[in-house]
Amino acid sequence: MRFAMGVVTTYSLDPTILLSIPLHLAWLGLGDSQDPLTDPIRLVEALRRVASRLTVFSERGRMQAPDRPHPLYGLLEGMIHESVAPHGGAFHAKLWLLRFVANEGKDSPLLRLVVPSRNLTSDRSWDLCLQMEGKPERGIMEANKPLSGFIATLPKFTSKSLTEERTAELGVLSREVSRCRWDLPKDFNEARFHVLGTGRRPTGWLPERSEEMGVISPFLGEQALKALQKLTDKPVFVLSRGEEMDRIPSVLSSFERCLTLNSQAEVSDVEDVRLGQLQGLHAKAYVLKKGWDTHLVIGSANATDAALVRGINVEILVELIGRYSKIGRPESWISGEKSLQKILIDYTPPKSPLEGGPTPDAIKLETMATNLSKMELELHCAFETDGWTLTLHSTSVFKLDDITMDVRPLSIAQERAITVSGLDPAQPVDFGILAAAEITSLTAFRLRLGEEEACFALDLPLHGGPEDRDQAILRSILRNREAFVRYLLLLLADWGQLQTIPTSTMGNIIGLGSWGSESLTDIPLFEMLAQAWAREPERLDEVAAMVERLHDATGEHGEPILPEDFLEVWRVFKTAMANEAAS
Predict the structure, then answer these.
(1) Residue 354: its pLDDT value, please?
(2) Chain segment 180-205, per-residue pLDDT in tens
(3) Do 499 and 30 touch, CB atoms closer than 8 A?
(4) Is 174 exposed, middle or buried (CB count within 10 Å of its CB: 0-12, 13-18, 19+)?
(5) Cα separation, 252 vs 243, whole angstroms
(6) Comparing C-alpha atoms, which of 477, 483, 420, 412 is closest to residue 447?
(7) Which DSSP state fits 314?
């Protein structure tokens, strides 16, 4: 089956990770050993196939700002929709809903639902993920209504307008989810969905009364833990971060065991952890025994006041129900051969109040970053003789006091960032002359105060950008004839054939040598074009569009990118396509 459309929700977002997602969705199961981001030609074709059919909603102000630029960041803009929780909390829901269809289009679509505790980042933390698949049936599944409604209301959380195509895709996903019968994990017989913080009023979540309860949550709230304790006869355990339990030791006394991760389990290679990556516990789960059943509730919601009690966060939880004799009870998570006990240790309260936590400078930077993300900012672009000018405009004055701020489009290196002392409507930030391929609405901010630093990116409204920017990005990738042929083969190859297309040094692999005197005779180009003409003529439209974009493009050494051997073959099909259109 092939990917048809999908939606992702996340709290934080790493554009570098997002860049790799279309590659995996376009070519599932290729098993390439190399870093997928090192092959921009595959990336650009994957983005062409997938980007318009994958929509991502993330918390505004929580997009990471990669240190290194990438020429394809600009192609992510259509996917990203920064969102805000309607009741002042965090847009914290984490969900993937992907729709797959058979290549022939005959079978019913298959929906894959993924509910992780993990964000769309490269964090090295202990997370928990539920994956279920199913096919839509005729009748409405009552249990799926909260999930279907959540998908349908996502556009309300973002100020960025969705295209008609993306709006229609969300409608399809919402309707099909409402009729989907899920294949549940082994020994579970029921699934319920809980969506928090999306209604007219804040909506929290607390479980029904249980006989036993276990809580796994990296972050804790005093009121939330008290409320959970009141709803169970036996609080078996709480598993959290040590620093969280340090804050509320009195609330923990009613739990039979308080646990943290063993420090040796928190990270496998300290030297390989990037600055800003989360480590340690990040999974969220609530394990409840009620009568003969165990209820396992997993998803995005921490045991915090904002999520469970006040209900101001946008969250999603899935409640799985099965016989405790088959799937265990709360105690089963922390003791026994199949439990987590090998990586857990009992929590020991500190002997004296601990110092630490965020410094005053770090707190000030966090506050400043939050305020900045709420400002009305926009980018203006204009063509000049030497290239494109790009300026950042604000509608109000923003004072930084003693904070230093660097600003740059995400497509250029940090060394080219502009340092400013504040924002003023009368003084736009001028990024200078940029190439068309460098124009992007994704804008990185770096705030510095003393030894502390805060980095994030925003997707800002862009006015007057080059209409041919995507073409310019493509030209920046297809810089020689070898790159052109590799991209051509990606356009023509069947899904099953994609495994056979080399990811690098393609010219040598298929016998094209250095292009100095060789031709295209080693590639069955005519056969591939003829096959596409017979089976999927729309692929030739894509080839025609690429030829039009590159018709006058030259390579690194001034040679035409389009080889004459190819153009001779292409003229045959171009004539046939014209005749077909005229008849």
Answers:
(1) 60
(2) 999 999 999 999 999 999 999 998 99
(3) yes
(4) buried
(5) 13
(6) 420
(7) B
